[in-house]
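Give me the fold.
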Amino acid sequence: MTDAPSSSREQILEMVRGHLSTELEVSPSEIREEIRFREDLDADSLDLYELVMELEDAYGIAMSEEEAARIETVGDAVEFVFTRLPGS
């Protein structure tokens, strides 16, 4: 489990990269902040739900369905988590 207060944007990005590369069988080097989940990675609703669950568990945050629906890129997900961490 990640120590949330000391997590940087880069650490969050690396966690998202690791999750997506495993789940979607994509090289981590292809996963950049501007990459769109649906259009570029062909992720479906279940893929995105699993990512949200992992982020919530790893960082102790909560994301509503409405908030999750607004996250379109890898960078959006990283920013969402980063701005909700204690001390951010």
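The chain has one domain: 4-84.
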